[in-house]
Amino acid sequence: MERNLKPTGLVNLLFALAAAGVGTFIARATASYTDEVVGVFLGLGFLVALFSYFQMRMEAREKLEKLELDELAKSARNTALFEATDAEAFPARRAREQFERWLVPAFCIVLLVLQAAAAWWLGKQVLNPEAREVRASLPMMAAFFGFLFFLQFLPGRYSVNVARLEGQRLLQPAGSYLLLGAYLCLLAAAGNVAIHFGHSKADLFMARALCVILTLAAVENLFALILEIYRPRVRGQAARVLYESRLVGLLGQPESVFTTAAHALDYQFGFKVSETWFFQFLQKAFLWLLLIQAGLLWLSTSFVFIEPEEQAILERCGKPAEGRPVLDPGFHVKFPWPIDSVYRFQTHRVQTFTVGVVTKEDDHGAAPESTIVWTKSHYKEEFNLPVANKEQDSASNTNAAGEKSAPPANLVTASVPVQYQIKDIVAWARNHANPNELLERLATREVVRHLVSVDFFDFMSVGRQKSADSLRANIQKAADQEQLGAEILFVGLQDVHPPVSVAEAFEAVIGAEQTRAAKILTAEGEAARMSAMAAGEAQKVQDTARSFEVRRVAEAGAIAGQFQHQMAAFEAAPTVYPQRLYLQTFAKAIAKSRKYIIATTNAQEMIQLNLEDKIREDLLNLEIPAKK
């Protein structure tokens, strides 16, 4: 007698619902990324169990309908009832066919969208993790996950065994998700324990691996939908459940790799691929082929390719290889791992780190800002470095005992890029465990030492190049003392400014000082201009007085000389000279007056003279133009 699947499907649905609800609650209560990804898998398992349960109900209705019609066919004498069409006589089968034709692909598409969206959202979080606050007891949450393991493992194992032994294909998808969910709950419990003991990176790595599996499941679902279109249809052969994931089944039952592959090939090609000689040979010789491949992979570690900008250290059994401890760029042969090990270093490449700031993760390759202001931070984190100020009043630098104290210090933010190149690879690799970090710490120490020995304003203005040269020499000296084997190529000073929190006040003070200096210079220029104008005006008055003096003296001398000559002329012609002088004076007096000459002396007519100024004739004889 054929087993009724509905009770088993309902049990799977209830257990999947409980696991998804509890898993989601735990994921919200902990700070584990693994819990979030596991919660997504449990939610997807619940959806698959729910959909498969509805499909089970439809197939159960179809079987019941067939039994009822068979009973009616045996007992009824009139067979006209069974001469109707299939759609009329078998409505349950028709509904099941429409369900498998339309709703099953639609559910697979919805499942694909959910898998892709969850993979994208969770992948973005695990690739850029943030600090999270733990809001629950992690050991207790791990215990809850252990309970979820037993809650899912037993029904999942029962379902997949029934599906395998009795051919109940609709139990396979939910059973596979239950088994996978059980194993993932153990993994989530391990992640919670790791976070509890301070190993949060392990939880992050597990979450990333689960995101990759979720992405692969989405890709598998996509290819299954595409291949379903081109699958050969064989009459009488039951179609594979489209939303059944072979990847989930493989992860839930890792012991059935070849069985799953054989079923997939048989279903896809429409004939027994698993019975071919090649597949049988592959199944028998798989272990040997795997060992041969692993051996070839192990032997491939004997070949080393060093890139043009690299050099490598060759170690044999943990010690420098005699004869050739350093490998130059090119192809090399060595003993396979772990006998010989190669450690690569970019010795021909100029490397850079920055002291004083922590750059943003997305700064590499980004376009530089067109405008840089002091009041805005341009890095992820900026450090305030002390700088001496030697321009303070000497009175403020004297303590109570009258002794000279240390000059007051200001704070400055500076981005100090340091470029270096590895010159001695052996010293760089062997003298220190972490030479990069040591060199950064040495550079930071030298920068702090240098800043407390220079003047604040001199460092920010004209002394920047001198400070950069001094820093490069000091960092090189410190690196040589530690035998780092590195050459400091360049030390720069950029983005030197007061801290962002006080930059606006500093700009206000500097602006006020510049305004004061501008006003002083303007006043001095105005004073120079007024002094020059006053001196010029005084010189002008003096020159005018001197010219007036010279003119008056010259006029007096001329008048005196003219008088002497007039006396001589009067004595020579006492009658003519006065008359002539009178006429000359009269002519000068009436030179600008209008004159009328009357030549007739015996006329009797009355002459009236109009002595008014005559109006100009051009004003009296105006011509008015005619209108056009």
Describe the structure in your own words.
- The structure is a single chain.
- This protein folds into four domains: 5-252, no CATH class; 298-345, no CATH class; 352-362 and 372-498, Tetrahydropterin Synthase, Chain A; 504-580.
- Helices cover 60% and strands 10% of the residues.
- It has helices at residues 5-29, 33-75, 86-89, 91-127, 138-166, 171-196, 200-230, 246-252, 257-269, 277-284, 286-299, 425-430, 435-451, 456-460, 464-481, 500-572, 576-589, 617-620; strands at 303-306, 311-316, 319-320, 326-327, 330-333, 340-345, 351-355, 357-358, 381-382, 385-388, 409-422, 486-491, 494-497.
- Strands 7, 10, 11, 12 and 13 form a five-stranded antiparallel sheet that branches. Strands 2, 3, 4 and 6 form a four-stranded antiparallel sheet that branches. It has a two-stranded antiparallel sheet with strand order 1-5.
- Strand 2 and strand 3 form a beta hairpin.
- Helix 1 (5-29) runs antiparallel to helix 5.
- The mean pLDDT is 78.
- Helical segment count: 18
User: What composes the largest sheet?
Assistant: 5 strands, antiparallel
Structural class designation: alpha+beta
Beta-strand residue percentage: 5-15%
- Indicate the mean pLDDT: 78
N-C termini distance: 125 Å
User: What's the total number of strands?
Assistant: 13
Number of domains: 4
Q: Name the overall outline.
A: elongated
Integer-rounded radius of gyration: 54 Å
Runs in which pLDDT lies below 50 for 5 or more consecutive residues are none
Approximate helicity band: 55-70%
